[in-house]
Specification:
The chain has 201 residues and is α+β, with helices and mostly antiparallel strands. The chain is built from 6 helices and 5 strands. Helix 4 runs parallel beside helix 5. About 4% of the residues have low confidence.
Amino acid sequence: MADETDEERLFADAMQDVAPLDKGKRVERRVTVESGETHRIRRDAALGLTDDRADPNFLTLGEVPPRQPLEHLEWKKDGVQNAVFDKLRRGEYAPQGSLDLHGRTIKEARAEMFAFLNRASASNWRNLVVAHGKGERSETPGRMKSYVAAWLEAHPEVIAFCSALRQHGGVGAVYVLVRKSPASKEENREQHGLKSDPDIE
């Protein structure tokens, strides 16, 4: 074509290998309908609500403050009376339950500690002994002891703990005081004519 401009010639050259679409063919789009369960899994993953929420154990496996193998442990929540804590330190409360974590991995100990504290609370055990060992010869000295201390401080049912007397394991074990159940508190109030719990609400 004599009257074609340079631009039109260039466009025609560029398009010479292009075939027109066949009008008879249609592209079908498939729509997949998700089941309710699949939708829930995808939604939970997007929201960050993965299978971790199925594990009720909130005790950490992350880094915790290090404790020395021969360190004497003592901790109590605000509201625990000094007289109650002194009796705990002197080993005057008879243990109602005990847990021995010797030979356990941190992961195993975490699961056992969580189950033990839940059982203690459900059974209305107030006084416990947990043997964690000193860990003097381990690659990370005092590692289990460090985790036990951190877990006890983090558990809402634990109101105090301290290293045990020598006959109960010394600095390789702790006495643990668990919060009273609501029923036990009420019974104590009625028995003693008190308006509040003598150690902690």
